[in-house]
Specification:
Layout: E1 2-7, H1 11-14, H2 20-27, E2 32-37, E3 50-52, E4 60-62, H3 64-75, E5 82-92, H4 95-101, E6 106-111, H5 119-124, E7 128-131, H6 141-152, E8 185-186, E9 189-190, H7 200-218
Parallel strand pairs: 1-2, 1-6, 5-6, 5-7
Antiparallel strand pairs: 3-4, 8-9
Length: 224
């Protein structure tokens, strides 16, 4: 799977995507991330990529021409399954969306900065707009890292145990049940007996019951 990410701050993405599971995915040839510095397409001597917004108002925005030139250049060499703009007013990222996107081959991500990007880029190029939460970040780079991680870990072969992702929170609209490891008792708190029973069917039944209970208590909206 290929991610191309347009950004004015590629260094912000280098570390989050170069460790742990994401690095393992790249080492196995299952995931590739290409960071494109938008300033390479900037205008004039100073490679400008931002300007004041028409109509006045505080804050700069990323202008149309550098982004359009960059996207057209990338599209001339590759067909993208999705071109995604990371923005607070996009659709909320969910596990269902991550599952669907993990089936694609080529995804282009656009990281906004300042007040965002010129609306014409959104109209001309973007096939999806995604938000990672109802809050505002300084730029889209951290949101892009979250999106790549949430999708990348679902690619077959990335996780050592291929079934691990299937039991994560939000799969089947449920939160994950409580989990335990050794020792079986710690400071008077014991691991539930059923988890020590070795009875697989009863363990799975208990886990489902606990997942449903936890979801009803903490996120009843998932069952709405």
């Amino acid at each position: 799977m290929q991610f191309d990410i347009i950004t004015v701050l590629p260094e912000l993405l280098e570390s989050p995507l170069s460790h742990s599971i994401m690095q393992r995915a790249k080492d196995r040839g299952l995931l590739n991330v290409n960071l494109i510095n938008l300033r390479d397409y900037g205008i004039g001597k100073h490679k400008q990529v931002d300007d004041y917004q028409y109509g006045g108002g505080a804050g700069m925005l990323m202008t149309v021409e550098p982004l359009d030139n960059c996207i057209e250049d990338l599209k001339s060499n590759k067909v993208y399954d999705e071109i995604i703009f990371l923005t607070p007013d996009g659709i909320p990222l969910t596990q269902t969306i991550a599952n669907k996107l993990s089936l694609q081959k080529n995804i282009l991500l656009i990281c906004g900065h300042y007040k965002g990007i010129d609306q014409r880029i959104r109209d001309m190029h973007c096939t999806m707009e995604i938000s990672i939460g109802d809050y505002v970040l300084s730029g889209g780079e951290l949101a892009a890292a979250v999106l790549v991680d949430s999708i990348g870990r679902l690619i077959p072969g990335v996780l050592n145990d291929g079934t691990s992702a299937l039991t994560d929170s939000f799969q089947d609209n449920l939160l994950a049940p409580p989990i335990y490891s050794r020792p079986a008792e710690y400071k008077g708190r014991k691991v539930p007996d059923v988890l020590l029973s070795g009875h697989d069917a009863k363990i799975e039944e208990w886990r489902l019951e606990q997942a449903q209970k936890k979801t009803n208590e903490l996120r009843p909206d998932l069952n709405a």
